[in-house]
From TrEMBL:
The gene is araT. It holds the Pfam family Aminotran_1_2. PROSITE patterns: AA_TRANSFER_CLASS_1 (PS00105). Residues 32-372 form the Aminotransferase class I/classII large domain. It comes from Pseudolactococcus hodotermopsidis. This is Aminotransferase.
Length: 389
């Protein structure tokens, strides 16, 4: 009996992430320098690793409660209150998830039904749309390319008026792939619009600790708390991608529902990782500072090298990505451009088309790579561009 045709038909609408597919394809080329994935090249801080080892040695190998260790949720509550001024109760308003990725999945699958629409600024991280499609909903992209990748309150309101079926707005800031973030006035203006409509805002703030402006990160939960589902985690801030610890922070009226989906997805996050996360959020509150300082040096170096070559770059205010417009005298199809570059110079970036239709014509570089790799990659890019002209 052939059961291969019995899958959820919405699976036919989605594919494996274009970022992962491109990375795998170019990884087969010998000697490849990769500025592709958003994974810090730093090691997890040693004191956090020691906490994980201590948890193993203490035989902390059993399930925690569905929401996660209370001590960790208390640490998270204190961390986010102190850092960003948002207050969520540890016992009833914080869920520990398997990375921010599961937080995204649990949130979207909890709120969406067939026929719903989800608004997102674009270009955007490609991990949202497949989940939206699996739920039978539709993602509507708001083009920000004409406004230096910044979503304005006016743009959002126009999209909400044009799409009355909207169930949620997704914000990701600092942004993957553009590095754009929002100041207090901008966040408040967007929140003021959202509060006029019966919609959720899913605020993916995973890069909140990598904000390079003079103003600290501002969460939209400060202004629209009852409608906001905040997503965060330790992968980027503490170089803990493999530990898979994320957080959902939301009003009790929302977490009471979200925990149902979370529980059936994963039961609970990994226990040993939760003990490591307690250490990260208590004794490692400022661990990101050292990494952030280095990221700024890398960012500025890349801009100094690519701009004279004709790449148009909006200087990122956060995260660790450069989203650069391909010079007009070079191939504009981002996939073809980067495949040729990878084959000729053994350097890999990510095609802008991986971030939606508004990303075509751009390339994304991750500067979560060592300075030595970045310097060599820029040298090869300069050679390649000059040879093509």
């Amino acid at each position: 009996m052939d059961v291969s045709t019995l899958f959820n038909p919405n699976l036919d609408k989605i594919q494996i992430s274009a970022i992962r597919r491109f990375d795998q394809e170019v990884s087969q080329i010998s000697g490849m320098l990769k500025l592709t994935l958003g994974e810090p090249d730093f090691n997890t801080p040693e004191h956090v690793e020691n906490a994980a080892v201590a948890a193993v040695q203490a035989h902390e190998s059993h399930y925690t409660g569905m929401a996660g260790l209370l001590e960790l949720r208390q640490a998270a509550s204190s961390f986010f209150a102190d850092k960003y001024g948002i207050h969520f109760d540890a016992e009833s308003e914080i869920l520990v998830t398997v990375g921010a990725t599961e937080a995204i999945s649990a949130s979207l699958m909890s709120i969406l039904v067939a026929g719903d629409k989800v608004l997102t600024p674009a270009p955007l991280y490609p991990g949202y749309e497949p989940l939206i499609q699996l739920a039978g909903a539709e993602m509507v992209e708001i083009d920000t390319t004409t406004n230096d990748f910044v979503l304005t309150a006016e743009m959002l309101e126009a999209a909400l008026i044009a799409n009355p079926e909207t169930k949620a707005v997704i914000l990701n800031y600092p942004s993957n792939p553009t590095g754009v973030t929002y100041n207090r006035a901008q966040v408040k203006a967007i929140a003021d619009v959202i509060k006029k409509y019966s919609v959720f805002v899913i605020s993916d703030e995973i890069y909140s600790e990598l904000n390079y402006t003079d103003e600290k990160h501002v969460s939209i939960a400060e202004f629209a708390r009852e409608q906001t589902i905040v997503l965060n985690g330790l992968s980027k801030s503490h170089a803990m991608t493999g530990y898979r610890i994320g957080f959902i922070l939301a009003d009790e009226s929302l977490t009471g529902q979200l925990i149902k989906t979370h529980q059936y997805f994963v039961t609970a996050a990994t226990t040993v990782s939760q003990f490591a996360a307690i250490e990260a959020l208590t004794n490692g509150r400022d661990d990101a500072a050292v990494m952030k300082k280095e990221y700024i040096v890398r960012r500025d170096y890349i801009i100094s090298q690519m701009t004279p070559l004709g790449f148009k770059i909006i200087k990122p205010d956060g995260a660790f990505y450069i989203f650069a417009k391909i010079p007009e005298d070079l191939v504009q199809n981002s996939f073809d451009f980067l495949i040729d570059f990878a084959k000729e110079k053994q350097v890999a970036f990510i095609p802008g088309s991986a971030f939606g239709k508004y990303g075509e014509g751009y390339v994304r570089l991750s500067y979560a790579a060592s300075m030595d790799v970045i310097i060599e990659a820029m040298k090869r890019l300069t050679e390649y561009v000059n040879e093509k002209r």
